[in-house]
Amino acid sequence: HLQAAANYINSGHFREALNVLGGINDRDARWYYLAALASSGIGNNVQAMEYARTACELDPQNGSYRSLLQRLSSGGSWYRDMQTPYGTTVVSGNNLCLRLCLLNLVCNICCGGGGFCYGGF
Fold first, then answer.
1. Whether the model pTM is above 0.70
2. I want to staple 20 with a disulfide (CB 3.0 to 4.6 A). Which of 5, 30, 70, 113 is the partner?
3. Could you tell me if 39 and 63 are in contact, meaning their C-beta atoms sit under 8 angstroms apart?
4. Superfamily of domain 2-90, CATH level 4
């Protein structure tokens, strides 16, 4: 049954994985690890962290379990930190305020400092 749950997780069917896991009474470290992955996949990060902690307690030498707990504990910053080269700063282009400030800067450069182009409205 654990392999079926792992297959569901690998294919992105997290709720189905949780259904399979819910039917298993013998819960070892791997069960808690898979339950953490599936819970995280449906956005239940509080439950995922609890499961990941239990997996680490049951098998403290397992690097995959520790890595998952670290990723969940950092709230997603782990991925950002792994993608950021040393000594540089990453600025997200999704920030509306940042985009408006950059637009205003470009308008100031291109339109002679009037704020917004074409009349400063």
1. no
2. 5
3. no
4. Tetratricopeptide repeat domain (1.25.40.10)
